[in-house]
User: Which sequence fits this backbone?
């Protein structure tokens, strides 16, 4: 049944503890490398929420190669703009004034992955082919579909559902 000593071990490596699974899943999904030591469909919902949140905001936590470092620059531009507004000075970064155009482009760039993921998930859930491709029904199936498109939009490559 996957339960050993009161701990749900379904879909997890038996060499590691549950704490090590959760830490690995959250820290390996943040830099968007897609590696895992447990099936994402068998962990608790709070862990999946944290992973989806990290992927949804563009995974800027560790600044992985490519999209992670670019996302960090976008967050830096927005934070410098907000800091300039709070101090009453003209926002600038590296001696260049930040205009509204740069801030709008930075915000649009790192929010676009979330918007595309939610848009494609809505399209998939509104078609019969998308609904028949889900391996679970109900909230778990909805989470699988949203996770799949968030992971795809951030170029992560991980999958939450069960392999058939």
Assistant:
């Amino acid at each position: 049944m996957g339960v050993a000593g009161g701990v749900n071990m379904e879909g997890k490596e038996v060499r590691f503890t549950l704490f090590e699974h959760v830490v690995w899943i959250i820290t390996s999904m943040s830099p968007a490398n897609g590696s895992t030591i447990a099936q994402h469909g068998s962990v608790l919902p709070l862990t999946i929420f944290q992973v989806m949140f990290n992927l949804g905001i563009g995974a800027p936590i560790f600044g992985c190669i490519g999209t992670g470092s670019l996302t960090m620059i976008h967050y830096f531009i927005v934070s410098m703009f907000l800091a300039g507004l709070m101090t009453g000075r003209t926002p600038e970064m590296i001696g260049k004034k930040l205009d509204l155009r740069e801030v709008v482009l930075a915000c649009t760039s790192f929010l676009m992955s979330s918007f595309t993921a939610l848009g494609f998930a809505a399209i998939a859930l509104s078609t019969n082919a998308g609904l028949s491709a889900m391996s679970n029904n109900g909230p778990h199936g909805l989470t699988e579909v949203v996770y799949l498109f968030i992971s795809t939009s951030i170029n992560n490559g991980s999958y939450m559902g069960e392999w058939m």
